[in-house]
């Protein structure tokens, strides 16, 4: 019997430690600019890494850009109330990880399948959920999906076209 109690105690410690280092936020992604696209995104922070998993539906059958923008304000019909790309370190726009610079909101491009569904998975230690580092904290920012692809060179936005999906990264 004492082995069972020890095992339960160890499990309890493991679960409590894991929950202290884990934070998760789920947001709704809403259509903008007269699109029919929508979806959900989940941001999960474990220790010093944040993983974003976004599921988007009703996209046209082509590539799209996804970025984080400055403000979690999706109130305008065109999504422009979110401001520009989130760029707390004042870098030039580029592809994520480019040694010449990139915005911390420059996630990249993805492809929708033949029925308009896409899953985007992105993980980084350059973001956090609610930490004190304003160059990493993504709370209060927005996920934007664009009608087209990011060319990674046009400044400051990548010339990705209309904002067709928007979701504010806020705690409920």
Ends distance: 42 Å
CATH architecture classification: Sandwich
Q: Tell me, what's the shape?
A: globular
Overall tally of structural domains: 1
**Nearest-integer average pLDDT:** 89
Strand line-up in the sheet with most strands: 5-4-7-8-1-2-3-6
Percent range of helical residues: 10-25%
The whole-angstrom Rg is 18 Å
Count of DSSP H/I helices: 1
Report the oligomer: single chain
Strand content: 25-35%
Largest sheet data: 8 strands, antiparallel
Structural class, judged by helices and strands? mainly beta
Structure summary, number of beta strands:
8
Can you identify the CATH superfamily? Superoxide dismutase, copper/zinc binding domain
* CATH class placement: Mainly Beta
CATH fold category name? Immunoglobulin-like
The string of secondary-structure elements, in order, is HEEEEEEEE
Low-confidence stretches: none
